[in-house]
Amino acid sequence: MIKSLTSLKYIGHTKNLSSFRTTKFYLSTKKLDFNPKICIVGSGPAALYTAQYLLKNLASNNQVTIDVFEKLPVPFGLVRYGVAPDHQDVKNVIHSFTETLKNKNVNFFGNVNIGVDVKISELLNSYNSVILAYGSLGENYLNIPGEKEFSNVISAKDIVSLYNGLPNSENLKLDLSGNKAVIIGAGNVAIDIARILTSPVEKLAQTDISNVALDLFKNKNKIEHVSIVARRGVLNAAFTLKELRELTKLDSVECRIDLENFTEVNIDNILNKLARPRKRITEFLYNLSKNSVKSKSKKVIELKFLRSPIEILGNSESVQGVKFKVNKYNFDFSNLDNLYDSEERLNSIPVFEDKSKPNEVLQCDLLVKSIGYKNVSIDSEIPFDKKSGVVLNDKGKVIGKDGLYCTGWIKRGPRGVIVDTTSDAYETAQKLFSDLTNDQNSTQRPGAEKIVSLLKERSVRFVDKEGWDRIDKAEIERGKLNGKPREKFQSIDEMLKVALEN
Amino acid sequence: MVFNLIAKNIPKLATLNTRVLLNKNTQFLIQNRNVAMSKTINVFFIDRNGDKQKAKAKIGTSLLDVAIDNNIDLEGFGACEGTLSCSTCHLILRKEDYEQLKAPNDEENDMLDLAFGLTPTSRLGCQITVTDKMDGWVFVVPKDVSDARG
């Protein structure tokens, strides 16, 4: 009975599932002759899933301490400041992370900027293991003429920060008084922004959207037409079907894709050769292209593929449009074999400029660049590889730095949904644990005791978990006044005031 | 969305392990919880180590509820708390069991598409409501979450 279930046939993500490993899922819980002190830089999903694994597997036999350092006074990273406010369900994972933070073996140090307030070398001297989980702080650029010249050319990251109330995001000069927006890039962030720009404001008002953003959307948003434009073709759409389906179900918006996006792709021939997730999303897009009703009463979100921006156009006031070159797949789709059931193979299909087509200009009053986050190093001690954009590592152990580990986006690049961080977290926790138990030279370390004295010496005010709890409660109270699940504090000063009141 | 609004306006149904269990099928669950709270059957989870764990399953609850009620130790399981916004409660069913259930809807399939180790008999635990006929059923927790990026 059980046997029949372990010889399973996989139908999605086959690239990842070449074999079942025989290793036990949990880590052995060997007793160490010292109390391991571990710290994590960052407090988002990568950090807290790793903390969960470590707690489960180290804490049963050892007096382990896990100290979580966060640059902001408040935890949870992109769950709090990245996940869109109208996706409160996704933010439910905060409940489990809160349990983790409340664990007696876990400490929180908010408002501590590692690399500036405390150096990585100081952490390495004070802890048995240091885990980098600070995510992707930077962003990609288009590097085309006009990108920095005109106002209202805005990065998606800044809009996401604005509607999520990230401190200092409120100064963004975002003008929504025009009719048309173009979003370059077709990932879930692009979809989030298109949806938020066109959602009924009453719906947004029930979320934990920032007051600054809500005011902007309520009173100054005239956007009625959004184009989401991708460089590659319809087979390489980066968004997930859940987010796309949500767009097509909005009452206020009509989501369109033109049938011409499928002219090169022999749709009937290829559908059955794709892995299930890609097949379903492609089929959905194809049906959408055939079904979209051209209604005049609604706002429009339009998906366009095979367009690369080559120049941003504008006048002294603002952006006015984007010039695109038209691309084509350079591929014989009748030759698509069953090997194309992997995303890697699909993404290896080359896309070239179609020289037979003239450049196209899309007029717009707002241009949003949603072309991805980018990793950066926060300390010159970290062996960060600029070329691949990740910290060089072997299964999560940073190469050339004993005691240093990494997990999440800084380990594998800024891609994927929250659940993808769990596998990373497990791998890194496993590596860390095996190093810790096999290293004869591991000894007792001072941990937070040393770091707290450094912070005091340097006059860095930090927020502990009781302080975060005060901020959390205060935000929820503030939310009640406005019928929102939470009203985040917009400024770090306000947060510190509430957290450090005693 | 409508379901969400309904769910959010309903008083807390039950607090188990400090989680508030809200489900897209909340109304359905309330009814069933009221009429059949006492009746339970046995189901089995095969955890990521391959170990089989027996669990008491209340009729009318979801398999996510069952895992939580029985303290089945499944890391990261049920991150969105049954709101169809993640795929962490991914379970694999026996073919003969799978075929007895109504096919998953589009929204569940969308989330399953993002799950690791997707199989033709995969389901999300939060979307399976326990019924009498499930006595003795076996649900496998995919272990590949650990080596998904191999």
UniProtKB/TrEMBL annotation, chain A:
Q: Does the keyword Flavoprotein apply?
A: yes
Q: Which Gene3D superfamilies match?
A: FAD/NAD(P)-binding domain, NAD(P)-binding Rossmann-like Domain
Answer whether the UniProt record assigns the keyword Oxidoreductase to this protein. Answer: yes
> Highest taxon of the source?
Eukaryota
Q: Report the residue ranges that make up the FAD/NAD(P)-binding domain in this protein.
A: 37-232
The Swiss-Prot or TrEMBL record lists the needed cofactor(s) as: FAD
**Major localization listed first in the record, in broad terms:** mitochondrion
Q: Which GO terms describe its molecular function?
A: oxidoreductase activity
Q: Which UniProt keywords apply?
A: FAD, Flavoprotein, Mitochondrion, NADP, Oxidoreductase
Question: Which annotated residues bind NADP(+)?
Answer: 231-232, 243, 416
Question: Which pathway does it operate in?
Answer: Steroid metabolism; cholesterol metabolism
> What InterPro entries does the database record attribute to this sequence?
FAD/NAD-bd_sf, FAD/NAD-binding_dom, Ferredox_Rdtase, Ferredox_Rdtase_adrenod
In Swiss-Prot or TrEMBL terms, this protein is called: NADPH:adrenodoxin oxidoreductase, mitochondrial
State the species of origin.
Brachionus calyciflorus
Automatic annotation (TrEMBL), chain B:
Whether Oxidoreductase counts among this entry's keywords is no
Per its UniProt record, what PANTHER family does this chain match? ADRENODOXIN-LIKE PROTEIN 2, MITOCHONDRIAL (PTHR23426:SF76), FERREDOXIN/ADRENODOXIN (PTHR23426)
One Pfam short name: Fer2
Q: Which GO terms describe its molecular function?
A: 2 iron, 2 sulfur cluster binding; electron transfer activity; metal ion binding
Q: Give the protein's cofactors.
A: [2Fe-2S] cluster
**GO BP terms in the entry:** P450-containing electron transport chain
Q: What is this protein called?
A: 2Fe-2S ferredoxin-type domain-containing protein
Q: What protein family is recorded?
A: Belongs to the adrenodoxin/putidaredoxin family.
Record InterPro entries: 2Fe-2S_ferredoxin-like_sf, 2Fe-2S_ferredoxin-type, Adrenodoxin-like, Adrenodoxin_Fe-S_BS, Beta-grasp_dom_sf
Write out the entry's keywords from A to Z: 2Fe-2S, Electron transport, Iron, Iron-sulfur, Metal-binding, Mitochondrion, Transport
Per UniProt, subcellular location reads as: Mitochondrion
Q: Name one GO cellular component term.
A: mitochondrion
Lyase in keyword set: no
What's the source species for this entry?
Answer: Brachionus calyciflorus
Residue ranges annotated for the 2Fe-2S ferredoxin-type domain, each copy included: 48-131
